[in-house]
Design goal:
- The protein is of the alpha+beta class and about 160 residues long.
- The protein is about 15% helix and about 50% strand.
- Strands 1, 2, 3, 4, 5, 6, 7, 8, 9 and 10 form a ten-stranded mixed β-sheet that branches.
- Strand 9 and strand 10 form a beta hairpin.
- The longest helix is centred in the first third of the chain and has 24 residues.
Length: about 160
Amino acid sequence: MRRRLSRRVVHSLSVAVMILAVGWSAWSAEEAHDMRARGAWIREAPPMSQALAGYMSLQNRGSRGYRLVGVSSTDFGRVMLHETEIRGGVVRMIHRAGVSIAAGEEAVFAPGGLHLMLMQPRRVLRAGDRVSVDLVFAGGRRLSVDFEVRQQPPP
């Protein structure tokens, strides 16, 4: 009796985890086309740099808002959302917990504004290299974006 109960409990938990995983990680067919990243690039830095910056335009082509709440990449030890701020002539980097993108709007990540701080690179990145970055939205949905390492912004 005890062994059957354990198997039933394990089976039920397994089914519940699979349902939750599918629900949180998969975009619906409609949502899959809502968010789009364009012009994603990382500024090339000297080989020993421990921090690089990533930029892109993140477009919400859907009818509801989204909130970007996290970023990750296997090529970096840590990735954060940041914004450059100038106060009293002093430039500071401000950590952002998230970035909201209203329906039909665009969040621009560009030098001097919003950007990704890509910390502790796990390999030397040179112009022409490509890096995959996962954008994590509230609710657990993800969008994988291919960034190109460049010396200058794309045209």
